[in-house]
């Protein structure tokens, strides 16, 4: 109980600090960059009238769809890696390239490719950003499994599919959950950015 109160107190203090820093910035810089709290509340309320809710809904649907596509692709790569370890080396150059390439560069390339179908751009770019994150988390989870557990699995049931879905996935469950949470945070920012740059109809961007 005391620990919960302790954590909540520090969390509240962190929010209060952000509020204080914002007020200092508002007093020191242009009001266009740091509008008043009341003005933000009014604009936020206006946003959810009319097409605002529809825009939020479309953005969330794009995020969920991209998350599902990325999860399936990452799981497939991870399964191949579990069956045949060199698979990771095969995909590593592509995943590394996606990780180091600036998001804006990927957005511009995809925008040029999907000029006639801008609606597909958020899905493509967001998936390209999520897959390296998820794949690295899942394969790292497998690497951290005790070798003795892997050897015993091979002796008990040689079926790779059974091992992967019944044993491996539950073991790397924390990696999966953490990567999904990270992907949601990153993916939302990417979806909104792509909506803005690619002039996608309906969406927060």
Radius of gyration, rounded? 22 Å
Q: How many beta-strand segments?
A: 0
Q: Average pLDDT across residues?
A: 84
Largest sheet: none
Estimate the strand proportion: under 5%
Task: Supply the key terms.
mainly alpha
Describe this structure in words.
The chain has 205 residues and is mainly α. It has helices spanning 2-28, 37-47, 52-83, 87-100, 103-113, 121-143, 147-156, 160-171, 173-197. The model has no long low-confidence stretch (mean pLDDT 84).
Could you give a quick summary of the protein structure above?
The chain has helices at residues 2-28, 37-47, 52-83, 87-100, 103-113, 121-143, 147-156, 160-171, 173-197.
Topology:
Blueprint: H1 2-28, H2 37-47, H3 52-83, H4 87-100, H5 103-113, H6 121-143, H7 147-156, H8 160-171, H9 173-197
Helix pairs in contact: 3-6, 3-9, 4-6, 5-6, 6-9
